[in-house]
Amino acid sequence: MKISARNAIKGTVKSIVSGMVTTEVVIEVSPGLEVASVITQSAAENLGLKVGDTAYAVVKASDVMVATD
Predict the structure, then answer these.
(1) Class level of CATH domain 8-58
(2) Three-state secondary-structure class, residue 46
């Protein structure tokens, strides 16, 4: 895989929840740390995702905010 995004985080697919149009994919990137994404159902099918597979959470954002309590 070659991609221009600098924020590609490797992990393991923990869960896949398919809806009528979209699919939620949860990737565990380290023990206890998960990243969730909602993608189209057809994209999920094209990727052939299965729980336990290795996948990348690719983050593309023009802004990253920082907050404190």
Answers:
(1) mainly beta
(2) helix
